[in-house]
Amino acid sequence: MNDVAITVKNLVFNFGRLRAVDDLSLEISAGTSFGLLGPNGSGKTTLIRLMVGLLKPASGNISCLGKPPTPSNARNVGYMPQLPALYAELTVQQNIDFFARIYGLRDKKKRTQRVDEVIKLVDLYSKRKTQVMKLSGGMKQRVSLGCAIIHQPPLIFLDEPTVGLDPELRARFWDYFESLTRSGSTIIVSSHTMDDAAHCQKLAFLRGGRVIALGSPAELRAATGTAEATMEDAFLYYIKRGEVKENAA
Amino acid sequence: MPRNMLTIANRIINQLIRDRRTIGLLVFVPLVIASLVGVSIPDKALLDYIAPAILATLILFFGFLLTGISFLRERSQGTLERLLAAPVSRLDIVGGYLFGFLLFALLQTMIIFFYMVYLLEVSFRGELWQILVFQVLIGIGAVCLGTFFSVFARNEFQMMQFIPLIIVPQIFLCGLLWPVSQMPDYLQWIAKFLPLTYGVDGIRTLMLQGQNLLDIGREVIILAAYAVGLLILAALTLRRGTSA
N or C: which end of chain A has fewer CB within 10 A? Predict the structure, then answer.
């Protein structure tokens, strides 16, 4: 496998007059969990949507596993959007099976086996015949995760996957994400909670559509110069540093 | 047919079948409308004139409404975005919708048709399969029209506003209630651009005069052109309007 899973070069994207992604460059190594961290409106979701090919940049380049993000290259990519994005009338099994077919799992026996495997993985086997509309928010998130990983993609984008989850479920999600990276998958997770940040192997702090800091959680915390610094302290430190630089300029 | 198109059509059919209230309404509402037409028009000749037009109008109306609202839901719930991030072409998505909804539109057509012919005793000289083929043509246009206009609506309320804007003028100008040839010149000119005008003309010829699809070649070609044009337009605009 290529050592670099994603390369983003001088990416620019505008929503009308608003510059949502501002000359952003990034390189994400294969087989790592990479966190995009920032407050609401910092450009996390827009960047993910650009990387999965849902938006076209005004300028700049994106390469995912050595190829541009187009529908024909989407088979190697898993995408879990911010909303659960499921078919409410269909059952858990039908939703996951639908995405299995869409991602090319044609052999019925193998597909049924894989669907069952994923349903067990997200711990919803007893609810497999339940319509999604009758599930709780956390359960819907689990179905949504199941749909994103059904085809065992080497590259997985998870947009705020832990929003609305209780601490126990959040910990289980992270256990699973870590097992995916151990098996060689690259995971890109967006979040605005610092708790998620600590789980990532590498992080990019985003603000105003720009990367204001890049490094491992330990490196980013160490930069504050305080031994007990939390991820939140590190984030605030980089924001302040950015403001000082802007004022000086 | 591409496999993904079939998978999407299959999913839509499954969704509708599981939504029993919607299925009930899909069957019940056209029957209510057909009954009202039958009861409110005691004149047999007038009923024969209006009933085929009702058949064409209902498939346009329900095709537009069902697809428009469904596509809007796909956009607002994020499922369309998820599909667009998958290895699926835009034509697969629109085509999948087309096949999924056409099945229900045809079912509705058959229910109304048999109700009108056997219970309301509307005159019928043509062949059923030819009527179904012609209705499919109107249905394809309706489904693509609904898909296309869903791009411009942000919620169900806005989508409903397109009915008086897109469907109601066609009902008044297509010749359902009054022959187009007896309308003022400028209305006749507008009617020439409306697909329902050709739908009503064609189905009346098939049902009342007992002619075949070749005899209404002009209507078939115009409706096919509308269907292809709207299909392309719907596929091209599919990416627009996904939540930012």
Answer: C
Taking the C-alpha atoms of residue B135 and residue B62, their distance in angstroms, rounded to an integer, is 12
Tokens of B84: 């667009």
Has residue B226 got a pLDDT over 70? Answer: yes
DSSP per residue over B164-211, as a string?
IIIIHHHHHHTTSSS-GGGS-HHHHHHHTT-HHHHHHHHHHHHHHS--
Provide ipTM, 2 decimals.
0.88
Q: Which residue has the tokens 């924001």?
A: A239
Residue B204 to chain A, least CA–CA distance (Å): 38
Amino acid letter, residue A124: L
Task: Give which of A44, A87, A111, A163 to mutate to test B binding, by max B Cβ within 10 Å.
Answer: A87
In terms of CA atoms, which chain B residue is nearest residue A94?
B11
Q: Is the pLDDT of residue B221 over 60?
A: yes
pLDDT tens profile A203-240: 999 999 999 999 999 999 898 888 788 888 888 888 88
- Segment holding A9, helix H or strand E: strand A4-15
- Reported as a pLDDT band with limits 50, 70 and 90, residue A157 is very high
How long a stretch of residues is chain B?
Answer: 244
d(CA A94, CA A146): 12
Contact B162/B184 with Cβ under 8 angstroms?
no
In angstroms, what is the C-alpha Rg of chain A?
A: 19
CA triple B125-B126-B129, angle to 5 deg: 150
Cα B232 to Cα A50: distance, rounded to the nearest angstrom: 25
Closest chain A residue to B21 measured between Cα atoms? A89
Rounded distance between C-alpha atoms, residue A122 and residue A141, angstroms: 9
Question: Closest Cα of chain A to B135: distance in Å?
Answer: 28
Kindly list the residues of chain A whose beta carbon comes within 8 Å of any beta carbon in chain B: 15, 46, 49, 52-54, 71-75, 77, 79, 81-90, 94, 98-99, 101-104, 106, 131, 147
Mean pLDDT of B161-175: 92
Q: How many CB atoms lie within 10 A of CB A98?
A: 24
Beta pairing, strands A155-159 & A77-80: parallel
Pull the structure tokens for residue A44.
């996390």
Residue from the list A90, A103, A106 with its beta carbon closest to the beta carbon of B14: A90
Domain boundaries, chain A: 4-248
> Please, are residues B59 and B134 in contact by the beta-carbon 8 Å criterion?
no
Where does A4-248 sit in CATH, by number? 3.40.50.300
- The per-residue pLDDT for range A182-193, each reduced to its tens digit, is 989 999 999 988
